[in-house]
Structures are given as structure tokens and as C-alpha cells.
Inverse folding.
């Protein structure tokens, strides 16, 4: 076993498995595509209405935006303010916790921007290898 694997295993063993599950649950909630995009949209500073968020988050469905906003509100990242007007007006804005989430998301964005060309090159190299190796694997597959 390599030294890197041992270090990772030691770190994993240092925490009870329930703690790891809790952290994984938190990361799953803040790490999905739509959550990241909605938080980034709300990070511009001003409160936004539902339709404005929908226009700014390209490709999100109404259902997914509704679920994402509810999840962010439930976890304390977003404040939802409803005004008693006709029609009702609802604004969304980041809480202090939500604003703190913007910092690591910006760092992740910067990393993704920097390493995108490297990742694309790796994908291309992988695709080329697959073109060469796939026919060989198919030739050795036993009949069913």
C-alpha cells in the first residue's frame, strides 16, 4: 500500500463513521450543481425574486429551483421574505452562513477555471485510449 493511501485511511479512521456520514450529508447538500449556481447568483448582494433567480440560473427547472431554494432555506443559507402585496412578493437573499459559503465556492470556481484545460486534455487522452482498447476488450469477451 502506498504512503498516500495509508494517510487517507488514517484520517478516515480518526473520526467515527457517524461523523463522516454527517459531513458527507452536509457536503452533499451544498455541493450539487444547482445549489452552487443559486448561491453564486444570490452572492451578488441584493435580494432577488424567484423569477430573477430563474432567469440567471441557466437551465434550471421551476421544480428544481423550488427544491433548491427550500433546501437552502432549511439549512440556513437563504432567507425567504414574503411581502403582503397582491400578487405576493417573495425575495430571497443569503444569510450570514450563506455568505460564508461563497468563500470556498469562489476558491473552487478559481480552481476549476485554472484546471479546466488540464481536465479537458485528460478526457481527450482517455477517449483516445478507449478507441484503441475497446475493440481489443470486445474481442476477448466470452460469448454468453
Amino acid at each position: 500500500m502506498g504512503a498516500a493511501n495509508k494517510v487517507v485511511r488514517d484520517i478516515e479512521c480518526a473520526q467515527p463513521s457517524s461523523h463522516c456520514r454527517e459531513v458527507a450529508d452536509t457536503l452533499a447538500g451544498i455541493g450539487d450543481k444547482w445549489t452552487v449556481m443559486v448561491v453564486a447568483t444570490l452572492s451578488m448582494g441584493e435580494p432577488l425574486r424567484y423569477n430573477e433567480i430563474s432567469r440567471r440560473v441557466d437551465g434550471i427547472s421551476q421544480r428544481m429551483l423550488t427544491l433548491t431554494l427550500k433546501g437552502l432555506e432549511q439549512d440556513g443559507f437563504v432567507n425567504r421574505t414574503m411581502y403582503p402585496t397582491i400578487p405576493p412578493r417573495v425575495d430571497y437573499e443569503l444569510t450570514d452562513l450563506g455568505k460564508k459559503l461563497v468563500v470556498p465556492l469562489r476558491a473552487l470556481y478559481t480552481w476549476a477555471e485554472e484546471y479546466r484545460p488540464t481536465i479537458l486534455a485528460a478526457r481527450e487522452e482517455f477517449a483516445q485510449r478507449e478507441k484503441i482498447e475497446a475493440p481489443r476488450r470486445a474481442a476477448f469477451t466470452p460469448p454468453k
